[in-house]
Amino acid sequence: xxxxxxxxxxFQKKILTEPTTLFSLFGIALGVAFLVxxxxxxxxxxxxxxxxxxxxSGDIVIYKRGGRISNPEPLVQKMKSVSNQIEYILPYVxxxxxxxxxxxxxxxxxxxxxxxxxxKVLNLKKRIVKELPPGQEGIGQPAHLGTVVAKQLKLNxxxxxxxxxxxxxxxxxxxxxxxxxxxYVKSIMDFGKYEFNERxxxxxxxxxxxxxxxxxxxxxxxxxxxxxxxxxxxADKIQDAIGWDYVVRDWSKTNRSLFKAIQYEKRVLFxxxxxxxxxxxxxxxxTLFLGVLRKYAQVSVLRALGLKKWQVILLFCLNGxxxxxxxxxxxxxxxxxxxWGFENLQKVYPIMPEEVYKLSTFMTDLKFMxxxxxxxxxxxxxxxxxxxxxxxxxxxxxxxGLKYE
Amino acid sequence: xxxxxxxxxxxxxxxxxxxxxxxxxKGIDLDxxxxxxxxxxxxxxxxxxxxxxxxxxxxxxTLGKVYYRGEDLTRKTDDQLASFRNRKMGFVFQFHxxxxxxTALENVALAARIGGTxxxxxxxxxxxxxxQLGLKKRQSHYPSELSGGERQRVAIARALIQKPEIxxxxxxxxxxxxxxxxxIQDLFFELKEKxxxxxxxxxxxxEFANRFPKLYRLKNGVFI
Lengths: 405, 224
Hints:
The complex is a heterodimer of chains A (405) and B (224).
Chain A: H1 2-10, H2 19-57, E1 60-64, H3 73-82, E2 86-101, E3 104-113, E4 128-131, E5 141-146, H4 147-152, E6 160-165, E7 179-189, H5 194-199, E8 200-204, H6 205-212, E9 220-225, H7 231-242, E10 246-250, H8 256-294, H9 296-304, H10 309-348, H11 354-357, H12 368-395, H13 398-402
Parallel strand pairs in A: 3-8, 5-7
Antiparallel strand pairs in A: 1-9, 1-10, 2-3, 2-6, 2-9, 4-7, 5-8, 6-7
Chain B: E1 4-17, E2 20-33, E3 37-41, H1 48-55, E4 63-68, E5 71-72, H2 78-88, E6 89-92, H3 104-114, H4 119-132, H5 148-160, E7 166-170, H6 178-195, E8 198-203, H7 206-209, E9 214-219, E10 222-223
Parallel strand pairs in B: 3-8, 3-9, 6-7, 7-8
Antiparallel strand pairs in B: 1-2, 1-4, 4-5, 9-10
Helix pairs in contact in B: 3-4, 3-5, 5-6
């Protein structure tokens, strides 16, 4: 009965065209939209950062403290025996070198991986900004450069540059015998993070090993897991199995403080934005109060006909709830639209200084649980803000309402 | 002689007006018997509407008691009184107070639906009543599409749908022209006879009041 009465008596189409209702709805929708955007923004930032780390470094990185690994097989067996989550283990070599082009020098990490198997762990193809067409080659060894280092050295795809490894002479401590290797730019990649783009050059594992003169030795492994979310647990297992001569670092430990900060900031911002929604619901309260006063005579008649106080409370709470649901729906839609707009806008206008935020662009990512929290919080506020007008309506004296037409 | 259905004992109603006490009713004793037609008359401000509201449990007396068949109504909670009104009492006011958003049929069915009757059953009962009052063709009209007399007849039908024992009317013809007013007045007596109602009417219309076998005159909060 209450639902029927609510639909026929309180919540009519014309109520939605009244300016007070429209302003209330606009307020809620805007508050909810900002809440959605902020949640999606933080999740997106965190996710983009996570993806760039995983794409370039794998789910877990393992390397030997102060040395190289010359016999990797027993280690690989140990890792596989303790973790059934491992999909692939990719050995890598890393060398700090200089690269030079037309008088410009830059210090980089020259990383060597087996290009045939790299895709099983890393997701480099997705990160290519520019590459040489298939079949075309330059002079020397193929290399993949980050966007920043390519820009600093004014290198384009197909261009040649030199990799220089300064080595102290075995006969004289003051004499340096640099070892030089020729490379060409096979592709330019956006590794996601500014420091990756500034410092990483990827090439064949054998090339780096030859340049360093380390035969078959490797620095460590990059691991691909079945689920990236289990990286921390699996990293702990592997660490226990292979011992403390090795550093085992999962993606979440890289930039751990930043990930934690994002998590806390997201929570804080949720409550800050929620205050906006609370403020918007003051308008709903006012609209409901107006509705109660406007329908005073009719509510008095309903009371005279036997409608109980709790039924009057229910009628006006339902009204607040309906306004809340409409505001919420419009707000979420508006929020998604803002997210879409933000993603597209940053493609045209870079709005984030990448030196500060480590990322130049990020995708928004609205998580299911975030939406659930937005809905729950908004509906709770909506319910609470409806209570005062609803109780006012129920406690009005029917006698007063019946006096006037 | 039929039994007393509604009675008041020493009912007083007072308001605080900026620190001074205004007594609208001063110790009213009244017995209304089942099937009686009672009229309460008085000039504006005499307290007749206040008395009707107290009799109809829409208002509480400041002092005194109201009894329904010997049961003290002033001890009941708000929700108990709401159910009681729904089952036992019908109200017709000076202004029709129909819900503008509902059709004539829905307005009439309202009390039955509040009382828990299903939509289909309530509307069937409402249609029968509208038919009796000559408004069957107006069932799907909204109050704004009805004349003053028709609205008041719909309001009477709404008051009768739960087959109340007591029908209260506060200046039921006060807002109508004399011709329509007369029609409404006749209708009250006709329905009283047909449905065996106890009728309690408040009016300042002497001609209407004279038609009642029992007439109370209220002046300055007391019967004269």
